[in-house]
Amino acid sequence: MSQHQPRTFQWQRAGRIFTPDGRYDWMQSHAQNPAVLVMEDRLRVYFNCRPKKASDGSVRARPTFVDLDRGDPRTILAVHDRPILDFGEPGTFDRFGVMAATVLRHQDEVWLYYVGWERCLGVPYNHSIGLAVSRDGGITFERFGKGPIITRELHEPFIQNSPFVMKLGDVFHMWYSTGTRWVAHAGAFESIYVVVHATSTDGIHWSRDGRPCIETIVEDEVQTNPCMITIEGRHHMWFCYRRGIDFRNADHGYRIGYAWSDDLLTWHRDDSKGELLPASGSEWDSQMVCYPCVVLVDDSLLMFYSGNYFGRDGFGYARLRR
Asked: Which InterPro entries does the annotation name (predicted)?
């Protein structure tokens, strides 16, 4: 496929799959950041949920999973009955929130890259990236260590979050979001972050270049939750983006964008070739579509994503039109 013939991905919504129904105290709302592990007989979808707000208005997210029928993802086979990771120890990077981001098989283990939350003074929070490992097929996980594998450094002094990790040949590739600045707005600070790239030989120690991968198209654009697949030698990336301020409304909330690359380094953004926009009317995804996870299941390309209010109304999926 030549550079002048980019492929077009047209998505057909297939419906909402899961909404937290309050069955557990720790799962009162939200199903954010669906991350899919394709298994022989099912799809295991990890996501992040929240309890009720604390008396000070704060919430602390934790991850869990649901198992879906591989042939019909709208059929829920099981809902896991506990978080797969709890909060970190006092003083650690994930003490105030743990959010699953991407999952992959490595040898006989399942690796889960996740985002840890710290509370801060001056700005509301900080994010870093951690790793947890499962040795029972992705049911239980243990932290690789108490510290993060990606965090602030000399040339990336702000937050790091939303990693997507893939191994190509002998090299691990990570696309993740890194903060570029904090912006003061309406008496608070909002973080601006964009997608960057890193490589590793072991999936633990990373070489970072810190260069934005994807051009921005809206004012103070925030980019997050990249995911990538390779088809016929061309690399295709989906991500979500929004305005950096005043984004908690339908006009400025998350949309799902698209870019492609032939070398993993230079990315050509063309949302019209693969985007997913909010639905019409008053659907669960009519105000916001966010946190895409695109996977190939048998012969079908599926996009799992969260809906309104950063996934408060659950997650669903879309199929590639044939």
From this structure: Glyco_hydro_beta-prop_sf
Nearest to 130 by CA among 194, 176, 173, 181: 176
Report the SS3 class of residue 311. helix
- Nearest-angstrom CA–CA distance, 33 and 311: 8
Longest dimension (CA), the chain: 57
- Kind and range of the H or E run holding 309: helix 308-311
32 neighbors 306 (Cβ within 8 angstroms)? yes
Can you tell me the distance from the alpha carbon of 97 to that of 85, in angstroms, rounded to the nearest whole number?
10
- Superfamily designation of domain 11-320: Glycosyl hydrolase domain; family 43 (2.115.10.20)
Question: How many Å is the Cα radius of gyration of the chain?
Answer: 18
* Structural tokens at position 313: 């109304």
Residue 117 gets the label, from left (phi > 0), alpha (psi -120 to 50) or beta, of: beta
DSSP string of 89-121, one letter each residue:
PTTSTTTT-EEEEEEEEETTEEEEEEEEEEE-S
- Residue in this structure with the two tokens 């633990």, named with its chain if needed: 204
Task: Walk along the chain (322 residues) and give the pLDDT tens digit of each residue.
Answer: 445 577 999 999 999 999 998 889 999 999 999 999 999 999 999 999 999 988 887 889 999 999 999 999 999 999 999 999 999 999 999 999 999 999 999 999 999 999 999 999 999 999 999 999 999 999 999 999 999 999 999 999 999 999 999 999 999 999 999 999 999 998 899 999 999 999 999 999 999 999 999 999 999 999 999 999 999 999 999 999 999 887 777 677 899 999 999 999 999 999 999 999 999 888 999 999 999 999 999 999 999 999 999 999 899 999 999 7
